[in-house]
Amino acid sequence: MTSRASLRARICAGRLAHIMAAHSPLSAILAEEAGFDGIWASGFELSALYGLPDASLVSMTRHLDMVRSMAEQSSLPIIADIDTGFGNAINVIYAIEQYERAGAAAVVIEDKAFPKVTSLLADGRQELIRTEEFAGKIRAAVATRADPDFLVIARTEALIAGLGEAEALKRARVYEEAGADMILIHSKQKVPDEVESFVRAWHGKVPIVIVPTSYPEMNESRIRALGKIAMVIYGNHAIRAAVTAMKDVFARIRADGGIHSIDPEIVPVEEIFRLQKMDAVKANENRFLW
């Protein structure tokens, strides 16, 4: 079974999919080893990796290259965060062709205007395009995919933009009618109340995706109690964990005047060799080099 088929089967079976963000092939490998069900190829994390704001500055080519590299190193299904689809419906057609060829199992497209600003920024510009225009993007994506197991996930930012639950539900219904396989509802509230309210009010046939970055108390038991959520994305925890660890280690080295104290506390270089599959290199050297 392909990674796409396995993801779709999991969703159809009602088994909650836990998806971890990644910004590199290495972080994708670590997510798989930790037991996650899929990888979120995060635009936010990739932007941060390059030291750039999450404001449509990373090109499709850069993001696509990273998705392709992740797919080469991990067998997990990859959900590609393609922001607004890199333009209008014509751009979406091209994007779907490319991401499907690169090995993605799904894409998430959001109904913001291009260029976007990251959703969780305080007082950030949050402009949405017309519902009908975004529905056209979803129809284009669904019509373009070659593999019927490839998921098209419509993300509405109506709650992020402060437009309220009624607008979010209206948009979600239109996107479902346009052919979306799932609806991602996003919120920047510090408690999960408005997301839970949306989920309870949702009577569509397709399941819901959430990203509980701002409301971390939304754990698995609380998600399952709602009964309509099929996927939870941990949207930026890989890059935040990496920054936390590097800041701590770098500060310790400077404070200690060397690596003597920190070295026993970090993974040995042999663990990096393992992640790089250096044993395979050695085996091939013994087999093929004279």
Automatic annotation (TrEMBL):
It comes from the Bacteria. SUPFAM superfamilies: Phosphoenolpyruvate/pyruvate domain. The keyword Transcription does not apply. GO terms for molecular function: catalytic activity. InterPro entries: ICL/PEPM, PPH, Pyrv/PenolPyrv_kinase-like_dom, Pyrv_kinase-like_dom_sf. Keywords: Pyruvate. Coiled coil: none annotated. The keyword Lipoprotein does not apply. Belongs to the isocitrate lyase/PEP mutase superfamily. PEP mutase family. This is Phosphoenolpyruvate phosphomutase. The lineage of its organism: Bacteria, Pseudomonadati, Pseudomonadota, Alphaproteobacteria, Hyphomicrobiales.
